[in-house]
Amino acid sequence: MKWVKDKKITGGCLAGQREVVFILEATSNEQVGDILSDLPVWGLIKWDVLPIQSFKSADDRDRKFIDKLRAAP
User: Fold this and answer.
1) Mean pLDDT of the chain, nearest integer
2) How far apart are CA 20 and CA 3, in angstroms?
3) Is 71 helix (H, G, I), strand (E, B) or coil?
4) Which domain holds residue 33?
5) Are 35 and 26 in contact, with CB atoms under 8 Å apart?
6) Which residues make Cβ contacts (< 8 Å) with residue 35, sequence separation at least 6?
7) Is 61 helix (H, G, I), strand (E, B) or coil?
8) DSSP, res 7
9) Does pLDDT of 3 surpass 90?
10) How many Å apart are CA 2 and CA 9, to the nearest integer?
11) Which among 1, 24, 44, 60 is most buried, taking Cβ atoms within 10 Å?
């Protein structure tokens, strides 16, 4: 709850399940690993870590791709 209060993570529990989903901002994959391994339950839980790309970044990438397609002969 301290991380939520400090706005380091956002998320919650899946309704009716014993699963938690949260988003955490980190500078690298290594930092994510360090943060998670500091948790007391680290070795007791199966973790699925998925990197998220911002909407703007994905939009920029897609626009560049479309521009390349339009420029192709």
Assistant:
1) 91
2) 14
3) helix
4) 2-71
5) yes
6) 24, 26
7) helix
8) T
9) no
10) 9
11) 24
Residue holding tokens 């699963």? 19
Tell which phi-psi region holds residue 61, choosing left (phi > 0), alpha (psi between -120 and 50) or beta: alpha
Q: In b/e form, how buried is each residue of 19-46, taking b as 16+ CB within 10 angstroms?
A: eeeeeeeeeeeeebeeeeeeeeeeeeee
pTM beyond 0.85: no
Q: Residue holding tokens 């703007």? A: 56
Minimal CA–CA distance to 22: which of 14, 33, 12, 37? 12
Distance of CA 72 to the CA centre of its chain: 35
Number of domains present in the structure of the chain? 1
